[in-house]
Amino acid sequence: MSSYSPAPITICDRCGAELVPGVRFCANCGQEVSSTADFAPRSAQPTTVIYPDNSPYLGSTSTMDSGLGIGKLVSGNGRIGRLEWVLTVLGIWLFLIVTWGIVIAVDAPGVTIVLGLASLILSVVVTTCAGVKRLHDFNQSGWLYLLMLIPFAGFIMLLVLLIVGPTPGQNQFGSENSGSIIR
Fold this sequence. Notes:
183 residues, three-stranded antiparallel β-sheet, mainly alpha, 3 helices, 2 domains, 3 strands, single chain
């Protein structure tokens, strides 16, 4: 009787995600894979990955990376390209137009305050996260997004986000489209 022994798999040292054999960077966290990565049989794999404190998910389970990646809308980790950034910003504008149309149509003070503030806060968070990920796409710090608060510098930053192309391949913020909500 022969026993089936699956091939050993590689585990990321930082986040514990399963790695494809021969890769140089982890697809989950972007860390460079060391040549001494852990090898374990598939049966020894944990079913739920718990991320360490230095990971982008701060010790939580992989709930933000499930489904269609909607949780990545409110995360500044990873990179997105120009097209996804523009589509995100246009989507937020459409969301605000519809929401404020409802606020105007209802004309109730309570609805105006709750719905108006909630939509404004959500739109600021999502567009800021998208802008930070767009800056990461060409290997710049997300802190540069604060230039959007300065009137003329904000316009220049908007042009930079629209014009500057991505860093090819891997950079310090992850692989291309690592922050994308589109799989």
